[in-house]
Amino acid sequence: MKALRFNGFGEVAAVLHVEEVPKPVPGPDEVLVEVHAASINPSDVKNVQGKFAQTSLPRIPGRDLAGVIVAGDKDLIGQEVWASGGDIGFTRDGSHAEYIALPKRGARLKPKSLSMVEAASLGVNYLAAFIGLIEKARLKEGEVVLVTGASGGVGSSVIKIAKTKSARVIGVDRPALDEGKAQQLGIDLALGSESDDIANRVRDYTQGKGVDVVFDCVGGPLFEVGLKSLGLNGRQVNITSVGTTRVSFDLLDFYRRQLTLFGVNTSLFDTVASGDILDGLRSAFEQGKLTPPDIARTCSLDEAVEAYAQIDKGVAGGKIVITFPNRPGQRSA
After folding, report:
1. Given CB 3.0 to 4.6 Å as the disulfide criterion, which of 13, 103, 235, 331 pairs with 115?
2. How far apart are CA 181 and CA 81, in angstroms?
3. Prediction pTM value
4. Taking a C-beta distance cutoff of 8 angstroms, is the pair 83, 271 a contact?
5. 237 membership: H or E segment, kind and range
6. Alpha-carbon Rg of the chain, whole angstroms?
7. Which CATH number fits domain 125-266: 3.20.20.70, 3.40.50.720, 3.20.80.10, 3.30.465.10?
8. What is the pLDDT at residue 146?
9. Where are the beta strands (DSSP E) in 87-193?
């Protein structure tokens, strides 16, 4: 089969290649999935560059996918499934290949309302959003949420999950989103990190109370801004830090307001744990309560190295999904 593979870490164009490799043979309690679509995440790029200590070589990258079970448990053959996981592409071969072997508990039924391309675009973004907002911060009905990097993959997923809890959402981007885009995403108040005094605007919007939850998809210079925007007993979730990885804040203020800080690392959730979360979200997608992200374009496996490079340079313009020729069910997103 054809697959993307890297034998050493380094710049994408230098180490990532399309190769012919043996089709995987599913082991006990595994299934073989014919991959129909697989999205490219920024973490896939960082993986090739050697920024994840757990990755073993040689390795096929790729964390998210949708496809059809073609071997393994005979009762599952023919099922359309989706999958993601912090082990896929790191300690076991990933989804950027024509076939992938997965634990059968990790390959879950794909939402019927989504195309293969749409289903493949969701995994990592919605996993981070759900784990942070629901499992960690335990968002309650009607609370107020501030999201930094609101228009990004994780940020937009956070907003959509927050709206299922009837939350009011303050979205922070650089620059502030225009009214049309903010409305489309479900943002109630759009702020710009370079143009707005965020903490003061938040206090005005919340009548001095502050927000209940901050989901910080940026970190760095916005980390302390998030903490200052929280109200009493507020909770902040962090998933990354752009620029500097060292931050500071007023510890006296932190404990006096009884704030809580959560870190979320999706790479610690393996295929089975991730499958449990995706399966829990399936009905919300089928009911239209949750929707996939905007997809910039699809590409072939042969075009994927270039797509990796575009994501690395920040010029991809949105989510890119690898598709495979002659696979059914790949209606456009």
Report:
1. 331
2. 31
3. 0.94
4. yes
5. strand 230-238
6. 20
7. 3.40.50.720
8. 98
9. 99-103, 108-109, 144-148, 168-173, 189-192
Other beta carbons within 10 angstroms of residue 151's beta carbon come to 23
DSSP tally for the chain: helices H, then strands E: 11, 15
Does the domain spanning 2-122+292-323 belong to CATH 3.90.180.10? Answer: yes
Torsions phi, psi of 327, nearest 5? -100, 130
Q: In this structure, which amino acid lies at residue 92? A: R
Helices 271-286 and 123-130, packing angle to 10 deg: 90
What is the rounded distance in angstroms from the CA atom of residue 102 to the CA atom of residue 79? 14
- Distances from the Cα of 45 to the Cα of 9, 50, 73, 314, angstroms: 11, 9, 33, 11
Residues of the chain with CATH 3.40.50.720: 125-266
CATH 3.90.180.10 intervals, the chain: 2-122+292-323
Tokens 């990190």 correspond to 193
Q: Tens-digit pLDDT profile for the chain (333 aa)?
A: 999 999 999 999 999 999 999 999 999 999 999 999 999 999 999 999 999 999 999 999 999 999 999 999 999 999 999 999 999 999 999 999 999 999 999 999 999 999 999 999 999 999 999 999 999 999 999 999 999 999 999 999 999 999 999 999 999 998 999 999 999 999 999 999 988 999 999 999 999 999 999 999 999 999 999 999 999 999 999 999 988 889 999 999 999 999 999 999 999 999 999 999 999 999 999 999 999 988 999 999 999 999 999 999 988 888 999 999 877 544 444
Q: How far is 290 from 159, CA to CA, in rounded Å? A: 10
Distances (CA, A) of 189 to 145, 156, 179, 218: 10, 14, 9, 18
Handedness of CA 170, 171, 173, 177 (dihedral sign): negative
